[in-house]
Task: structure prediction
Amino acid sequence: MKRLRYAAGAGVAVLGLAGCMGPTSLKPMLDDSEGYSVRYFSLNMLSPAARASLAAPGTEPLGFKRLTAKGEVLVSDTNAPASHRHIVFEHTLINDGNDGMVRAIERRSVDGLPLLIDYWSSYRGVAMLSVQRGLPARNLAAPIMSVRSVSTWKSMANMQEHTTYDYVANYGYGDPLRPSLKLERRCMSGTFHDAGKIAPGLTGQAIDLTCDDINGSGAKSAQSDFVWLRQYGVALVTKLTTLNGITSFKYDSVTAQ
Result:
């Protein structure tokens, strides 16, 4: 069976699971990306147990309705030299209910050719709720993985410096009777700085977040670095580090409606 691993992406911070249900069709992901995102990555698609642990609609307002980030990707593989291909990304975050949850659509291309398409939902861009990756060149997509239950979920509504933010949940694919895997994301905030350092035109304050991904055995499997934008109340990934290498993101523009 082919396995599609959720590797580094501008929105898909590493969860450390591989698609164990087998690839699915890519076509529905490409035909109507907006509609596909609404149908499969809205809050009501999560399990009742997961929804009950999240903020209620309207209780955690965000500073945007739709935010689009564009930039370049640099991939450094431990088994190969740094890529000299021109890889660019665009990902769009959508705020549906002012509850801290955002839907996202991310596209990445290399030398002008489609490389991947990701759909995901998360808490403020940091803690993943559901995710799916498609690979156009292979005409394949991994199955949707989503949170089934939540153990720890710390609010970022009032972001503080030098503070730990923990997110512990069980994730799985499809049928709730299938095995799930417990994963933890443990984040530490730094100090506030000028958001304009991240991308031209950004205003206000930003704060760096360093997040360790902890697997069910208690071992660190990856590190995700984010910048949290106070004006919008959401985080953008800047670097992902795994055993396979480092993926860095340079933002050329961030615009919001």
